[in-house]
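Progress narrative, Year 2. Work on Large ribosomal subunit protein eL32 from Thermosphaera aggregans advanced from sequence curation to structure prediction during this period.
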Amino acid sequence: MSSDFERLLRLRSEMNKERPEFLRHLWWKKPKFKNEPKWRKPKGIDNKMRRQLKGFPPVVKIGYRGPSLVRGLHPTGLKPVVVHNVSELEGLNPATTIIYISGSVGLRKKVEIFNAASSKGFRVANPPRIIQPSTTGGVGQ
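Result:
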């Protein structure tokens, strides 16, 4: 990676630290918004958040966006790719991509994908949790 690319990755991480968490209007008042706090653009005619008055949460604006060269990349600088089966690893470059194993895949297939990806030199961002047998024995021992 070039030094300029690494500089942009560092700049993005610094921007992410400064970026506020964008939550919808009245999330602090209504219990139904606290369960799933996600962004909704305020559109009311008298909405103080839309008017960007002092004391109200910030609104999403283009100025909060990160550098375009590193937008959507993993913090390591690799392009993330979601993989559902072993055949999807074909045609991918291990030097430029990082693998995410799909959440809808079962444990047995996750282990297969992980082993195939590791043998081909891919980095896996979410390796499967393999349950190890306990050393103390089973129930009732």
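The two ends are 55 Å apart (CA to CA). Helices lie at 3-18, 31-34, 107-120.
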